[in-house]
Amino acid sequence: MRKLKITELNRLTPQEFKNRNKIPLVVVLDNVRSLNNVGSVFRTSDAFIVEAVYLCGITACPPHAEIHKTALGAEETVSWIYFKETLEAVDKLKKEGYTVCSIEQAEGSIMLDKLQLDNKKKYAVILGNEVKGVQQKVVDNSDYCVEIPQFGTKHSLNVSVTAGIIIWDFFRKLSE
């Protein structure tokens, strides 16, 4: 088995990516502190043709060298908007017809493996702060919460790992 060269991967050019139909998904970062996590979310969003990333509160915005270090240019291909308050982003998304899902351990949350999506609808997923998670007031304004099942001793995953799992699962379900 031979590893493929970068030139054999047939990736889109940045312009082709901009013009490509995206999955109906917006990723919202609610006060994410780590610029490396922000960059990772951009890179994953590029990989799975996410519509946009919304950066909220203390979440840093491009251009920034630390974001670029993990995004590797995806911060230039994936559309993004900054909001001072996450609830502003939630209000905008709801007015535009998105179903808003906080990724959080909460009463009544839906386990990711049980989540069913309608590929005719638009979705937004909210990922929270590395320590505090998604703000309660944002959870209160979400349509529902989605939780990743976990079976070990730790109670949470790194936000960039969570983003990878969630974005891949939404991509898979919305592309069916």
Structural write-up:
This protein is of the alpha/beta class and 176 residues long. It has 7 helices and 7 strands, in the order H-E-H-E-H-H-E-H-E-E-E-H-E-H. Helices cover 35% and strands 22% of the residues. Strands 3-2-1-6-4-7-5 form a 7-stranded parallel β-sheet, sandwiched between helices. Strand 1 (23-30), helix 2 and strand 2 (50-56) form a beta-alpha-beta unit. The mean pLDDT is 97.
- What summary fits the major beta sheet? 7 strands, parallel
Order of helices and strands: HEHEHHEHEEEHEH
Strand content: 15-25%
- CATH secondary-structure class: Alpha Beta
Structural domain tally = 1
- Average pLDDT score: 97
Write the layout of secondary structure elements.
Layout: H1 14-19, E1 23-30, H2 35-47, E2 50-56, H3 65-71, H4 74-77, E3 79-83, H5 86-95, E4 98-103, E5 110-111, E6 122-127, H6 136-140, E7 144-147, H7 159-174
Parallel strand pairs: 1-2, 1-6, 2-3, 4-6, 4-7, 5-7
